[in-house]
Amino acid sequence: MPQQVTINRPTKAERIIIGIDPGTHIMGYGVLRVVGNKPQLVTMGVIELSRFESHYLRLRRIFERVQGLIAQYLPDEMAIEAPFFGKNVQSMLKLGRAQGVAMAAALSRDIPICEYAPLKIKMAITGNGQASKEQVAEMLRRTLNIPQESMLPQLDATDGLAAALCHYYETSRPISVSSGAKNWKDFIAKNPDMVVQRPTLRSNKKDSDE
User: Which of 44, 63, 126, 207 would be a feasible disulfide site paired with 157, CB 3.0-4.6 Å?
Assistant: First the structure.
């Protein structure tokens, strides 16, 4: 029977995660601070875009505001919701552009990005991939102990926060690997990409193929 090998992920004493829910009319965001293994709400909100008639002006606004949030909260990582596939091609194109601009804002500040499908986020937060936005918001409120009066009417904000919490869950749990290895040496041989190898000093003698 294959052995189950558990590898603990490296952890930081404190990390900041920003979550983004892309949109062309309203973009939601949420920021988490993780201290040890405890996630805490820092802020959540929305970026209003409806007042800009031009789609391109909306994209510029997204870029500027996301860069502003990064400068203000100094996140270590960004989690962003992947656009869902719909029948309206033009809407999908615009939503993809909005997501891309938000990602470009993070990349311009060297912030690593992880993308999660809506179903994955809902499953991580509520245990139900078909949960409603209201159910996601309520579960976030309970999990993070958010006072009812601090909840926003725009569910785009809690969608952004949900992306951040999903990322925390995904990156904090140990990795279980079905190794099929007989011992540690055999495990290293079968999983070289999961083990940090110490560099070895090379001799002055050149290899024959150089």
Answer: 44
Write down the catalytic residue from 14, 21, 53, 207: 21
Q: CB–CB of 177/7 below 8 Å?
A: yes
Backbone angles phi and psi of 4, in degrees to 5: -100, 115
Say whether 138 is catalytic. Answer: no
Of the residues 134, 156, 193, 210, only one is catalytic, namely: 156
Place of tokens 């725009």: 154
Domain edges within the chain: 11-175
151, 136 contact by CB (below 8 A) = no
Q: Which CATH architecture has domain 11-175?
A: 2-Layer Sandwich (3.30)
Q: Is 159 a catalytic residue?
A: no
pLDDT digit string (tens) for the chain, length 210 residues: 444 444 444 456 799 999 999 999 999 999 999 998 899 999 999 999 999 999 999 999 999 999 999 999 999 999 999 987 666 788 888 899 999 999 999 999 999 999 999 999 999 999 999 999 999 999 999 999 999 999 999 999 999 999 999 999 999 875 454 445 555 556 556 655 544 443 433 334 344 343
Known catalytic residue at 156? yes
